[in-house]
Amino acid sequence: MTFDEIAKTLQEKFEGLVPTTDRAGDPFLTVPAAKIVEILTFCRDDGLMAFDCLSNLTGVDAPPDDIETVYHLFSYPKRHSVTLKVRVPKASPQVPTVEGVYPTANWQEREAYDLIGTVFTGHSDLRRIMLPDDWVGHPLRKDYKEQEDYHGMATTRPSLLNS
Amino acid sequence: MLLNMGPQHPSTHGVIRFVVKTDGEVMSEAMPDVGYLHRSIEKIGEICDYNGFMPYTDRADYLSAMNANQGYAMVVEKLLGLEVPRRAEFLRVIAAEFNRIISHLLSVGALAMDVGAATPFIHALKEREKVNDLMEALCGQRLTYNYVRIGGVSYDMPPNCSERCLDFLDRFEPQWDEFERLVSANKIFIERLSKVGTISREDAIAYNLVGPNLRASGVDYDLRRDIPYSIYPELDFNVIVGRGEQGEVGDSFDRYIVRVREIRESIKILRQCFSRIPEGDILAKMPKVLKPPVGEAYVRTESSRGDMGYYLISDGSAKAFRLRIRTGSFTGMAIIQKISQGMMIADLVTLIASLDVVAPEIDR
């Protein structure tokens, strides 16, 4: 199926879906956060779409106030793919976990939580995965400031060029 | 009993830690703890300009740097709408397939060593050194090549390169037969691998395994054939799928044998490339500063460890707005916790080695 057909099928079934097709590269479909589990379950189980694989899940900072979570779905039987996006405010970055639909989301959501700070509600094990548990901040946010020291170790050093 | 394994452990293939819950010799669970090699390559991607990021892709997966280079170049080219000269596409595929051969060589060699056979590892590394020499002749590097450029490749083939490469392939094929005679039919080796760490087809898809690990579980899928890119549609090769010939489909032996046979397919691809490579440019005409239009692209390539995806968002400036690298090792690692339940401790090493995870690729 093409993106337009997939978008049309989903729009007939769910409300509040916004396709974006006017940019370079791949089109994507923005969906409401509250419905993401329902939508992904439908995408997985529907015979025509059959998206049995969540190829990639990641977080993207959307300045000034939002955070996006991006889902790249792929179907092994149909060999087609689609990009879904969820947009939530930075003030309360909560997205329901899709771990129950795609088990692979467990680690990928942990990574998105670690690096961008999306809180996946209902996740079974939402801990940092790359950074130490007591790290402050989420590095992939555009307004991220690295802490000056970590357990007494400086995280920056003076430039050798200026001395 | 709660046991710690790693982060420095000879069989974890890098810096990975496992917390192993055991009852005697049987594990109830092995929980992977990753992140020791996290270098925030994705953040670096937002700071460098597009061309400047290329060497970092080498470091994302240092055993398969050509494939990582190629994926990154392809995602930027997709956004730019750039056509790559045909000769450059051939050179990319030649480099990538050689890289696949040496990556698989190291993988199967290390697997044999992890289950107690040191000789095959030495044999595999001996051949790998020869390919490293060829790579050095091609681009001056032996591990992190930084060979592919956005819009083409950095150097053309040196004189006599194709003769040297074909000469190597002629010598390598009988060597590889010998390796197979030594290892693949070895009773002890088979018993260490057969029915160990079996991953069902459903689990492999649900946990998003990719590449040889996915094919070993019986999924007939290869990006090079099914979502073809570059010149792969013109080439003739087979997709190797696990058949459970020494136990059941998706066990460690299947993952091993898929890699062994993929090396032969890569040899086939290389021979075709050398006979068909056209003359021409190796780099497209490029502006000094690359500014892809506003938009996003997700490009997947078949790396040695499977589907390597680059997700690039451009805001129209000279630097990426967001660059995500989706790697096979990361998802491969995530399945260990499930598969390890009820396994013997000694088999954990087999499972890790047969999944062919590379620590820097997990952590990026």
Describe this structure in words.
The complex is a heterodimer of chains A (163) and B (364). Chain A is an alpha/beta fold. Chain A has a single domain, classed as NADH:ubiquinone oxidoreductase Nqo5 subunit (Beta Polymerase, domain 2, 2-Layer Sandwich), CATH 3.30.460.80. Helix content of chain A is 20%, strand content 29%. Chain A has a five-stranded mixed β-sheet with strand order 1-3-6-5-4. Chain A is elongated. The model of chain A has no long low-confidence stretch (mean pLDDT 86). Chain B is an alpha+beta fold. In chain B, helix 2 (54-60) packs across helix 3 (65-80), helix 4 (86-114) runs antiparallel to helix 11 (252-276) and helix 4 packs antiparallel against helix 14. Chain A binds chain B through residues 23-26, 28, 52-56, 58, 60-61, 70, 72, 76, 79, 81, 83, 102-104, 106-108, 111, 115, 128-132, 139-140, and chain B through 34-35, 38, 40, 42-43, 46, 78-79, 81, 203, 205-208, 219, 221, 226-227, 292-298, 300, 307, 309, 311-314, 322, 324, 326, 330-331, 333-334, 338, 363. Strand 2 (24-25) of chain A pairs parallel with strand 6 (295-303) of chain B, so a sheet runs across the interface.
Concise synopsis of the structure shown:
With 163 residues, chain A is α/β, with parallel strands linked by helices. In chain A, 20% of the residues lie in helices and 29% in strands.
Task: Find the structural class of chain A using helix and strand composition.
Answer: alpha/beta
**How can the largest sheet of chain B be summarized?**
3 strands, antiparallel
Let me know the number of strands of chain B: 8
- Tell me the overall shape of chain B: globular
Strand percentage of chain B, roughly? 5-15%
What is the succession of H and E elements of chain B? EEEHHHHHEEHHHHHHEEEHHHH
